[in-house]
Structure formats: structure tokens, C-alpha cells
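Inputs:
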Amino acid sequence: MLSNHIQNGIESARLAWSRIPNSDESPFVLDDDGVGILKKNDGSAVESLDYEVIENFAYREEQAHRRRKLYVSYLLVVKWFFALLIGICTGLAAVFINISVENFAGWKYSVTFSIIQKSYVAGFIVYILINLVLVYSSVYIITQFSPAAAGSGIPEIKGYLNGVDTHGILLFRTLIGKVFGSIGSVGGGLALGKEGPLVHTGACIASLLGQGGSTKYHLNSRWFNVFKSDRDRRDLVTCGCAAGVAAAFRAPVGGVLFALEEVTSWWRSQLMWRVFFTSAIVAVVVRTAMGWCKSGKCGHFGSGGFIIWDVSDGQEDYSFAELLPMAIIGVIGGLLGALFNQLTLYITTWRRNHLHKKGNRVKIIEACLVSVLTSVISFGLPLLRKCSPCPEPDPASGIECPRPPGMYGNYVNFFCSKDNEYNDLATIFFNTQDDAIRNLFSAKTINEYSSQSLLTFLVMFYGLAVVTFGTAVPAGQFVPGIMIGSTYGRLVGMFVVKYYRKLNIEEGTYALLGAASFLGGSMRMTVSLCVIMVEITNNLKLLPLIMLVLLISKAVGDAFNDGIYEEQARLRGIPLLDSKPKYEMRNMMAKEACGSGRVVSLPRVVKVSDVVSILQSNTHNGFPVIDHTRSGEPLVIGLVLRSHLLVILQSKVDFQHSPLPSDPRTGGRSIRHDSGEFAKPVSSKGICLDDIHLTSEDLEMYIDLAPFLNPSPYIVPEDMSLTKVYNLFRQLGLRHLFVVPRPSRVLGLITRKDLLIEDAENVNTLELQATSVRIQHQNKRLTTRNPDAERPLLNGLLA
Amino acid sequence: MLSNHIQNGIESARLAWSRIPNSDESPFVLDDDGVGILKKNDGSAVESLDYEVIENFAYREEQAHRRRKLYVSYLLVVKWFFALLIGICTGLAAVFINISVENFAGWKYSVTFSIIQKSYVAGFIVYILINLVLVYSSVYIITQFSPAAAGSGIPEIKGYLNGVDTHGILLFRTLIGKVFGSIGSVGGGLALGKEGPLVHTGACIASLLGQGGSTKYHLNSRWFNVFKSDRDRRDLVTCGCAAGVAAAFRAPVGGVLFALEEVTSWWRSQLMWRVFFTSAIVAVVVRTAMGWCKSGKCGHFGSGGFIIWDVSDGQEDYSFAELLPMAIIGVIGGLLGALFNQLTLYITTWRRNHLHKKGNRVKIIEACLVSVLTSVISFGLPLLRKCSPCPEPDPASGIECPRPPGMYGNYVNFFCSKDNEYNDLATIFFNTQDDAIRNLFSAKTINEYSSQSLLTFLVMFYGLAVVTFGTAVPAGQFVPGIMIGSTYGRLVGMFVVKYYRKLNIEEGTYALLGAASFLGGSMRMTVSLCVIMVEITNNLKLLPLIMLVLLISKAVGDAFNDGIYEEQARLRGIPLLDSKPKYEMRNMMAKEACGSGRVVSLPRVVKVSDVVSILQSNTHNGFPVIDHTRSGEPLVIGLVLRSHLLVILQSKVDFQHSPLPSDPRTGGRSIRHDSGEFAKPVSSKGICLDDIHLTSEDLEMYIDLAPFLNPSPYIVPEDMSLTKVYNLFRQLGLRHLFVVPRPSRVLGLITRKDLLIEDAENVNTLELQATSVRIQHQNKRLTTRNPDAERPLLNGLLA
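Outputs:
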């Protein structure tokens, strides 16, 4: 049906294409467990496939089959090994960050406390200076060394897993900046957390391990370099994300669900198990390290450290009347969360347009100003607050008032005239955030905080969190969100205690619900957030309450704007493809969507100068290749990618003098490229057209594009509903899609039963109990073509 | 480009198709939150759209837009309401089953125990008789009333969610059979569980609620009948599955993950939240009911009941040396699990081919024989076992020996000569399975069981489980699996205690690991099983150990055969489409897959007699429709489904005398069908061709198929790799796919940025701050066509 030379071209394209591990067009088309890469090693077998030795095909195929089995097992082992490695490394990174932060913060507070015994002014100055130095070190690292490490990194990772590669987010320098930057910024007491950066850290570690280290710093190892396809890399990064969450919250199940719900766009259940494994490894590593630290080997780390706020001694039962205040918490969370998203959006836009244009010095000054502001507020406000007398000591709860000096705990004695007094504002403000949250969540401390203190703290901290968001330091939103939420949650809890007159209500439980509601209202996560909250509080019984609060806060927040990650991704120009099409698409056709630019197509054999001028004249990344049958009719034979054209232009080995297609049967012509050359580089931007130097002689030569084509990109008819097109594009993770005219004939219909090939064979084997028969049967399927399908269609039957 | 009358035909097809809520071809193409159904109610607006009033289009569109918003909110509320309803109903069903089973079993054991105080022979006979009556009632219900309720039901549900509708699995009678059948079979002491049936029960409840009750039993309510599309129904069934698992194990997170990992084939993250909500509701309902039952209102229910085996007082730490015996447990689990799958496969095949062909009487006799056998073994074997003396009483553990009569607990005094003796075999064998598991998992009971007893029990129970599997009663494999696994787990634990000489090792923890390993080796579930085990034992710290064991047992099992659900699904002829394509497909083309039968296509206007003869002559479910342009070239204008053709034939309203296409511009012709008519019926098999009576006059008339077409089914070129075709088919949940010749032109390329429509508009709004501008812009997009796209392609540019 197709003319012969076109058939050859398509055939050689198919063979060549199957050798390219990074089929840019179809990152998810290859099946799991690395068979995508396999083809590369099988390449030799496929390459030497000749038309004269077609009878040997079955034999070769069997040999390849055997080798394949071994190779697939090898790849499977390697993948699991990498999952293990990612888990261990991310766990260790998390432990390192936590130990460092706790030590810096602990040292800072112990120094300050020992100085304020003599002079509050001197303590104030020392406190401000220590914070300033820590924040300055963080912002210096970020601005000078790794600008991509600023912010939380989750929007960028989300974009990467959605198919948008933001430059620089997975480099080694970004990893370094993220780790040390977040130590400085969190240790320096800014209103931000280390959890978002940990997710980014996990992703960086995964990506770097997958590419075998950093190419720039010559840490590359050939041995590690097995993951070349986009899909494998994405799988690794997904593992890394889950590992980051698991490490940040010690929540392995939450980590898996976070990766599943929030981050990845494509998900296969085979991947899930590996991701889960990574998360569990992280949990083991963190647990082992914490056990090791218990003996006091880690300095100030130990009593603080990893966030895990056990509320297992909180309230267990709740009456139906309590559901109303809980619903109110949900509404507040939705409103404050949506407001937070909107404010940060405005501020980030303003910063980007006015402030950060002026260079790194402005960024450094800005971060330092925020640091001083934070220090002044967190030290100065408690000074203005009158101390309260300690409550009656309750030996059952084991909580002392005031707390012993230099320790963590409730009831901080700060600027009080008497010894048995405590400053409730200092208890939450003049503390690391982890400890503050622990104090807010704590049970059996009814009436510890006055509502004025909580309200002051809420307003101030909310303001600080908004201002801090977007400075050039690594910044997570989880912990500030929990701080804000638990403050108003505890406020509501206090009113409930007051008006419901029930003493078995614990304010700490309300604080927990408040935290969940604010995170729900801002991040709009659902299942994963729910599970994370349950895992960090270690109390499965609160699940329905957390869920109720999240349902409400997410619904309220959704009425106003998108989640913070989506907003930020949009602001940064990361075009995320939603999982569902927009409503407007129902009334549009495929043809209407495909841009206003005309389609630039290439002939099969193209002159080098034409390729260069086409690549210069537009920015398209993919070009259809058109050939003509002997009768002169045009025929689309495939898609060639800009990046592949650039590789061909650079290497020049495929240039030929003849403007005629090279025929594989005449010998001599085989693919001269290593498939690795076509793999997308991880950390560089790839080849640039300007870097390629072509002589005038080169420009007069020709390239036969047939071996470099993707011979069958997905196609849609011109008038297909855009909703359907969107689903095709999104579900299969495509990058290019051809819009073609309506077909004139249908050669066949594929239904479910046509795709159950092996099952049918299994039945054969089952019946015949002979594998040799099975192989023959299989080969028959491979070589014979369906004679009916090629017959002209019998559509005159009914006319 | 297309000739005018074809364009009209396609247009009217698009309008009509958009009205059909159940677009059989594309169950997942419509976007979420019921916009799929929406079109039906918008139908009127679309229908009255005329070419004369095209200027009104923008206004109408705006009105429809407003109504849409309201309707979408309404549907959203309805969906959440149904999720709530499913949760409550499934929870109540689970409570009902559990209370009934516990009461029957409790009554049975208390009667037997009171009789054996006098005579063991009389007790034996009474015990056998009670079991026999219970099992007989179960098998009678199944064989006479609801044959589809036999077995676990999970393979069938899995098939349904994969797109294969086994007849009868979601009927009301199946629900009834499942509930009462499993009460009988579990209460009757057979070696099976009630967890699998509960999953099926949840699915039935969801489906019945979704269709508004049973049509057959006139419980149908119009009000409920909002879910007509396949996709909505599947979403409900997914919710039901998760609810079933959540109810069976009181594991809400495990339920979600089970539905995600094991059951559904298509998953959207929007659905996840709703599924989670349902699961949490179930947890609340079950918890409330159990709280209510605590006061003794539920008879024997209360101390037993829902499986939840708290091992929180089990061991917390483990040395690295213990990992070896744990790995051995994993290997044993893999081997025994794979053997179990293979044995049950053989036995089921044999049963199907030899036994169950002979009718219901054989099935009843078989079940009764199995019941008697089970009773004899579980009563008789402990009689042969010598009693052991009680250990020293340990007041800290609170475990009495022997246990008080009529109660649940360890150390059963059965056929012992002395009072302070117990029979270790009776402790696990002569008990409900839930209690036996609790006894096996229990901590602080080192040396309670002798290894002979455990080994005897293991062999006997394994045999019973294999024999019981496949009898005509509702049967779950979870609890028997846990029984088998925990037995050999405890055995290994005993050896560890003996040889490692560590007294802080708890045999109960090893029993738990054994249970996980056997389930992993048989069912091959991973994440969900892990989470379920953690949730039922309420001990998060064991997660890494459970995961290790599962990893090993699944890997070992996979070396031999598929998971039990896949094996059973294949045996029952449910063609499940795997999520990844078979390796063989890489070397095949689309054309080779599409069967040997020739494509039967219809012209646009077709004679009724031709339709009838085509429908009679083959069994295809979809037919391409071909029209001709004015120049005589054929053009594929869409796909028509057999079921829709049957509806048209039955109603006859669309028959016309003229063999010419009806033109919507001449008026008179509009779609005379209610879209509901084309919706796929839930519980009946649909219209049969033989039921349609056509007069000879009817047969001479014509039908214009244009309004009934799916105007743009997905298409693939003939030589596309079958791997790619498979992915397209599987990911989008298709039923039919057209294989067409290679296109001759590319009209456009769609890339990511072309699909980010609304985002671009949002930017506009943001910049202009005027919604009116936005609407105009939007409408412009809807009405104007891209002029470039229709120009002939400039592919001569470079030739």
C-alpha cells in the first residue's frame, strides 16, 4: 500500500527510534522495568537485522529474549538498589539538617538566656546578631552559589514531574544550597520551615544519584549512569520526593501519598511499591539516627529535633456539639489560607517586578532586614507582656513551671519579676518553631495562654510569614502554617472550654485541628495531609475530625483561589497541565487549538542549509517529516525533534552527498550514532544552534532523516473535541501531537480482545503444555500480516 | 475542506453525541464532577441552536455557562452526599454482618461448651449440626437466589473497574446473597473470611445507590437516578470497594490504598479524596456502633467482633540478627502463597469442569460435606491432643489460665483431665478465626503453643482452606491467609526464642509477620496490605519489618505464578487489561492486532434491512460510518455502537423514507430521543435484536446515522507500534479504536502550550481586570477558526 522506499524509511526509523532511550515524544510509552533502555543493548541485534537474513529472525529473537530476561532482572535489581540508596541518603541529609538546626538554635537560645540573666539589652543584641549571621550565611549561599535553591522548591518539582524542566533545579549546587541554606534560615529563626526544602533535597539526591553524580564537579561515575530515559529519571525523582516528606515528618505513608496526590502527574502502581520502600528506608534511617542521638552524642539535638508532636494523651472522645466549633476552625482555616495565598502572590509579584530585578545585593539586604524584624518582634513583644503566676503544680502531667533553664518545655520564665511566674507570649514566640508547636499542641495545660497573647502572636506571625515568603532563602510553608493554624485552633479551643464548660476538652487537640485547617486552606492537599497529620501526631483516632476540618477548609479556600503551589508555579511560568481539561475545551476542535503558526515540515531527505534556516526561523521543537509516494502523493512518515536535528548537525557523520534516500539494503548505511547521544542531557541546556559550525561544503550536503524519526507519533483528526485531545495528551504524557485530516478509510478496529495477546497464548500453552509450540505461534504473529486488513474496504456492501 | 453535507453530518453528530451521557466509547473522556451529565440538561440549548440565530450564540453560551455553574455545584453536592451514603450503608452492613456472625458463633460455642460438660459425643454432634445448618443456609441462598454472590467477588469487581461487566455482580439479589451468605458461611466455621465479601458488598451498595435502588424489585427512585455515565458508576463502585475494606479491617487509609492499588484501573486524584471521605465515614459508623455495643446490647458481639489485633504491647526493638528469621518467614510465605494459588487454581478448574456442571444439588452437597469435614477436624483433632499444665500466673499480663468458661481468650480448657490445664490445639482450632488470630498474635504468652500443635494446625487448616476455596458460598481469603501465616510465623518465632535465647522477642510479632508474608505471597498486594496490617495491629513501628517480609514474599511468589485475584479472574474469563503492555507488542503493528475479521462499515444513510442483516451477521459492537464527499471520495465520519443501533431500531422514530441525509437547516429534523434511552442499562443485558419486531415496511426505510455517531473516535495509523496503541487504549479506557492509513498531511501540531488555554485567559483577566473583556475573548476563540490551519500545507518550501 505504501510505496516501497517509504516503507523502508519508516522501517529504518522504527529500528533507530527504538534504540533511542530518551524518546522525547513518549516518555511514558515504554513499558516498566527499564525495557525502554533495554532496546539500546539489544540494539546490535536489531541493527544487524537484514532483509537477506530474515529467516534467522526467529532465532535471533529467541536469543534476544533470553538476554532480555537477564537484563530486565539486572535493571530491576538496580532500580531497587537505587530506591534503597535514595532512602538512605535522604534520611541522612534530613538527620544532618535537623542536628545542625537544633544545635545552632539550641546554642543561640542558651547563650541568650545566660546573657539576659545579667542584661536584657545585651541579650537582645546578641540574639539579633546571631540570627543575622545565620540568615546572612543562608542568603549568601543562595544568591552567590545556587539561586535555584531559593523558596520551597515544591512547585518546581511538581512542574518537573508534570513534564516542565525548570533549569537548574536538580543540580548538585542546588542540593548544597538547599541543605546549608535551610540550616541557616531555619536556625536563624525566620518564619519558615525546613520541610519543603527537604522534599526538594530528596528530589535532588534522587536525580543526582540517577545520573551518577554531578557532571560538572567530576563526581560522575560510569557505573551509576544507567538511567537515561526521562521516565526513569522521573521515577527516581518521585521516590526522592516521597523520601523527603517521609524524612521531614517521619511519615512514610504520608510521603507516598504526598508524592501520589500532590507531586506526580503520572503514576503507575508498580512505582508505588518502590516509592513506599524508599519511604520506609528513610523512616528506619531517621529512627536509627535518633536512637543513636538519644545518648547525648548530638549536642542540643535530642529532645527537640524531628517534628513529631505526640498528642496520644489528648482527648479521645468528642460530643456532637463540638463539631460546630470544629467546623468554624475549618472555615477560619479556609479564609486565612486563601488570604495567605493571595497575599504571598501579590508580594511575590511585587518583589519580582520591583525588588529582585536590582540584583543580589538587594536580595541580601532584604533577607537581613526580615531577619532583624523577626528577631525584634520575637524578642521585643514578650518584653511588653506581663508575666502570669504559675498554676498549681500537677505531678501527674510532669510539667514544671517555670521550666528549668536551658531546657525545652512549657512555661518560659522571661522578663518576669518573680521566680514562679511565666511569660506566655515568650513560651510560643521566644522558642524554636518546633518547640512552640509542641507547646501549643500540649495537653493538660488548659489556660496556659491568654487569648491576648495568642491573638498578638497570630497577627504578628502571620505577617512575618507573609513577608518572609519569597525572600531568597530556602523556605518551607509547613511549619509556619502549623504555627498559625494551631494558634487560632487553640483560641477556639479556649472558647469551647469556656462556653461548653467541659473539662475533658483539650485545647491541644483544637490546636492540631487548627493546624490541619490552615494547611488545608493554603495548600489544598487532602489525603496526604490527613495522613501526615495523623502520622506526626501518632493518633489514628483523630482522623475523622482532621478530615472534617480539611474538607471544610479546602472547600472554603477553593472558592477564592488555587492552592499555594499552583499559584506559585503559575507565577514562575511553569505551565502545569491539570489532570482534567478545561470546560471551554468542550466547544473547541483540535484544529483550533494548534496555534496560529503554520506547520513547518521537512522532506525525508533534506539539505543541511535548509535544516539550519528552519531551525533558525522558528522555535518549534518538533517537525513533521513528509515523503512522497512514487505516484507523487504526500505521506507523513514521522516526527523529528529539534534536539535530534541538532545532534545530527553537530556530529556531521550522517551527512551525504546524494539527495536520494539511502537504502539499507545497499549496505553501508547503518546508524552511526550511539543512542546515548540522543539522550536528553540532565543538567545542561543541550546543544545550541550557534555552537555548531558548518562549512559551506557541509551546508550543501543532505541528511536522510528516516533513521531519526519517531515513525508513529499519536494523531488526532482535525475536528476532534479538544477535551478528548487534552485527555490523550495529558494521560499519555505527550509533547507533540499531529492534527491530521479525517481519514478516508478504516483498516481495522481494535477492541479489548485484540489486545489480550499473551493471555490467548497462555491459554495455548496451558492446553498444549509445550513451549516450543508457543514460540512458533508467536513468531507467526510477528511475521505474517493480516491479509484481510490490506484489502480495499468493502464499504460498497450496503450502498 | 470537507464537503458541506458531511460537515453538517459531523456537526449534528457532535451535538447529538454530546447529549448522550453514557458515551460508551469514552467513559473517561468527560471531565470530572459530572460535567458529562450536564450536557444532557444543556441539551435543549444546544438542540435549539440554529444557523439563523448564530449571533445569539454568545448570549446563549453565557446563559448556559451560568446554569452550568449551578448544575456543577449541585452535582458536586450530590456526589459527596452519595459518598456519605455509601459510607454509612457499608458501615451498617459490616456491623450487621459482624454482629450476626459473632452472635451465631458465640451461641454455637456456648451451647457446645455447656453440652460437653456432660458429654463430648453429644457436644460433637450438636456442633456439627449447628455448623451444617449455617452452611446449608448459606449455600442454599447462593445456589437458589444469587449465584453471583459465591466466592470473594474481588476478581469480578476488579474486572468491572477494568471495564469488563460480568453479568449480575452488582444486583440487589447479589447484595442480599452476599450479606446473608457470608453470615452463614463464616458463622458456620468454614475456613474462609468475611472480608472479601464485604468489599463486594460495598461495591453492590454503591452501585445500587447510584442507580437509585433495584429496578427489578421496584425500589427505584427517580430522585436518586442521577448517575448515568459509566464513569460515574465506576467512581461509586470504587468508593464502595474502599468502604468495604475500611469496614472489614477498620482501616480507612488501607481501604483507600486497596482501591487505588488493587482494584481500580483508572484513577484520578479528585476521586481519591471522595474515596477517603467514604472510608472515614465507615470508620466513624463502625466505631459508633461498637461503642453502642460495648454496653452489652449486641449479645455475644463486643469482645470479639471486628478484627483488630492490637499488638501495641508487642516487641518494639529488633536486632539485626533477627532479620534472617524474618527473611525466612518471607520466603516461606512466598512459597506457601504461590502453592496456595496453584492448588486453588487446579481445584477450581476441576470443580468447574466436573462438579459444578451437574447442577445446584451437587454444589449444596459439596458445601455440606466440607462443613462436616471442617467440624470434625476442628472438634476431633483437639480431642487427640494431650493437655498441657498452665504456666505460672502472671498478674501483669492479665491473662488467666484456663480462661473462664464461655469467654474469649487464651488457654482453652478442652478435654482436659485437670482444671489447671489447657489444650493448645483447641485454643486455636476450636474458636472463631478472629479469636484464634488474636490468640496467635498475643504477646506475653511465650511457650503457649507446642510446635506439634502449630504444625498440625498449619497442615490441616491449609488443606481446609484449599478445599473450601471455590465452594458455592461467599468466601474471603484474608482471614484464612492470616491464620495460616501467623501459625508458621509463630513457629519461626518459637525457634528464634529457642536459639537466639532472647527473651524480649515476642512470638506474637513473628505471627504478625507470618500473616503478612502469606497474604503477600498469595495476593501480591504491597502498599495497601502493608498499611492494612499496620492499621489492624495499630502499631506503626512494625512497618519496616512488615515491608521487608512483603518484599520477599511477593518476589518469591511472583517467580511462580500470578496473584490469586488475577489467576481467578483469568479462570473466570474476565479479560483484565494490565497497566503495562506485553513485551511481544513491541514488535507488532496496530494493523496486525486488529483481528482477522474484515471491517464492516455502514454508510451515513443506511437501509433498515441492511442494519438488521449486519447486526445479525456478526457480533461486533461498533461500526465505522463512511460518507462520500461530493467528489466521491470516502470519508470516515464516525463510529456507531451496536447498542445505539438497537435503540434506534426499537424506537423507529428516526426511520425516514428518503435515502438522502436529512439536513438540519431544512428544519423538522431534530433528535427525537431522550438521551437517557441511550444510557447503558445497569442490571439488564440491554435490548436484544430478536426482541425487535420490524414490519416489511420498516425494513424498506432508511436511517440517517449522523446524529447518533461518535464523530471522532481515537485513531491510530496502521503501522504504529502496538505498545503505543496499547497505552492509548488502556490509559484512556477505550472500547474501540480505529486503525487508519498513514495521513498524507499534518494540519497542525499540538504542544503543551496550545493546551494551556484558560491560563492564558487568566493572565488576560489579571492584566485587564475586566471580566467582560474575558468573555468576549473567549467567545472569539469559540467562533473564529484559525485561517492558517486551513491553508494547504507549505511543504514545498524546502523540496
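Remarks. Chain A has two domains: 73-572, 583-660+675-755. Chain A has 29 helices and eleven strands.
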